[in-house]
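Incident log entry.

Two folding requests arrived from the same account within the same minute. Monitoring flagged them as a possible duplicate submission, but the sequences differ. Recording both here for audit purposes.

Request one:
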Amino acid sequence: MHGIAATCEAVDVRREPSLEELGAFLKARRAQLSPGAAGLPDSTAPRRVPGLRREEVARLAAISTDYYTRLEQGRVQASEAVLDVLAQVLRLDGDQREYILTLAGKTAPPTVGRSARQEVQPQMRHLLDDLTLTAGFVIGHNTDLLAWNAMAAALVMDFGRVPEEERNYVRLVFTEPAIRVLYRDWEAMARLAVSHLRMDSRRNPRDPRLTVLVDELSALDPQFRLWWTSHDVAARAGGTRLLRHPVVGDLALERSTFMCAEDPRQQLVVWTAEPGSPTSDALRYLASTIEPAPEGIRDAG
């Protein structure tokens, strides 16, 4: 206990957006964890707050309640050792642990311009151009849609008709009726997309473009507002995407994600089908309906 407590820094730091976000995230996770799930004995006494109390988290983490309170308030910087213990106490997964370490400055995320929009890397363009039966997208910082191929446009929507400043994946998920209809499990996919956006925000929680996006979607959609304030985070990973396409019907696609070595904030996302499956046959038919575009790749430019 004394070894962990000794790593706590007792001096308050100037409040920074990342530390305030860290405190809000810890508070949200504490509220969602029951005493039983945290290994505490059951009690019949009424509880005034959902989940764990601050003093219970502090006791389990072997730190003082005052220190943990200041940590939730964004007033103190925690060591990596303390954050690791809190990750265990609050039952955080790997993505959530990475999130709090980045917010606390224990990892070195790529720097991000305050308002500049990324440009897709040439290598990503070439990869997309070579994908003829596979839908491919390049997702950038804060889920900006940087590029896509003809198959992606045929499968999802014509992204080219969307103004460049509005080409954001999360924004489209919540504002485009065609995408709401396309996803058979829209609610699950939309909530996951919000978790991806929250994960991306760890690099710069007060990015002006992010603030505008969050404010806009919070005003437009109560579900977005609820999910954003829940502080759930997740890194992009594989999984099945269930679609109901207006031309080729029901599809089951596997999502894979590949990071760009030249710019880790850019990720190539592809949707593939099992060879010989009905989905594979449907994609071949859909690809045959696409008219060749002289410019090849579609992108944000």
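Request two (distinct sequence, not a duplicate):
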Amino acid sequence: MLTIHAADAVLGAPDGADSVAVDGGVVVAVGPWTDVSAAFPTARVRRWPGLVARGLVNVTARELLEETYHPDPREADALGTRPLSGEAVTALAMDDARWGASARRGLQRMLRHGTTAVAGTFTRPGVRTAVTRSGLRLLPPT
């Protein structure tokens, strides 16, 4: 769906650019609101406070999702709330369902920080499913 995202400014765009038109995930125009809205009069409009910036690509997603455990809030008393790695993960009884649930929590953290794409090859089936269902763009490893 064609959407114009309007804000106070667009990061990395020329001075005066405060709008970005996006169609199906592809940027089709960047510029001042008057120009972009005139070029796409039927587009839906989303207004944002502050700055519009491009999304982040997480190139460490494989390590964060397949080697790091993101505890369930119900495990906070025993495991804490911060991600676990190394020997702490080795000590847990990890099966594919638990890896998938951990990956979903890890993906939620990434989304909160503006991630729009992840790079990597995911080998754990539960993690692969979570990444596919997340709506994030999957890029090849870097």
